[in-house]
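# step 3/5: fold
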Amino acid sequence: MADRKAFFGLIVSLTGLAWAALWIWDRSPYGRYLRHEQIAAIDAGSPLAPIALYLAGWTLMTVAMMLPTTVPLLEIFRRLTARREDRSGLLTLVITGYLAVWLGFGGLAHGADWVLHEIVEQSPLLEANARFIGAGTLLLAGWFQFSRLKYRCLDKCRAPLSFVMEYWRGSHDRLNAWLLGMHHGLFCVGCCWALMLLMFAVGVGNVAWMLLLGAIMAAEKNLPWGRKLSAPVGIALLAAGGMSLLHQL
C-alpha cells in the first residue's frame, strides 16, 4: 500500500510540476519562446539555444500530457516488481525510456518544421500561402484518426498487461526496463503523433489545447469506450481543417 501511494504521489507530482512550469513559463517574458514560430528569433549567443529551449518546453509538455496516460502500464509494472529491491530504479528506467522516445519525436518535429520554413522562405508562392499550413495540420491529424497505423498502435496501448508481459523479459533487467519504456513510447507516438503535432502548431505552452488533447488521448488509451472516440475526433478535426481552409481562400 505504501509503495502504491508513493507511486501515485510521484506521478501526480511530476505531472503537476510540469503543468505549473509550463503555466509560469507561458506567462513570463519568455513565454513567446514556447511558440515555434518565434523560437528561431532567440539571440542567446549560440545556435543551440533555440533548440535547447524548444526541447525543454516539449519535454515538460510530454510529462504534463502523456505521462498520465501511461499510468495503467506503470502500475502493472510496479506491482510486477514490487518485491524487488531495485523496483524504484526499474520504474524510473521505464519512465525515462518512454519520455526519451517522445523527446526524439519532438526533435524530429522541430527539424522538419525548420526545413519546412526554409523551403517556404525560398519560394514566394509558398510564402504567400503559408497560412494554409495550419489548416493542413488539422486535416492531417483528422485523416490519421482513421488510419490502420493509428488503430494498431492504439490497440497495443490499450492492453498494458499484455504489453508488459510481451516486452518485460526478466533478464538484463535494467536494459529491459528501459526498452519496455521505449517500446511503449514508440507505440504511443504511433497512435498520438498527429494529435501532438497540433500542440506543435498552436504552441507548447497553450494550456487549453493541452488539457483538451491530453484528455482525448487519455480517454482513447484507457477508457473502455476510448477506441470509439477516435472517429468522432477525426471527423471534428477534418471539419475544422476544412473550415479553416475555406476561410483562407
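# step 4/5: annotate
Residues 2-248 form one domain.
# step 5/5: archive (pending)
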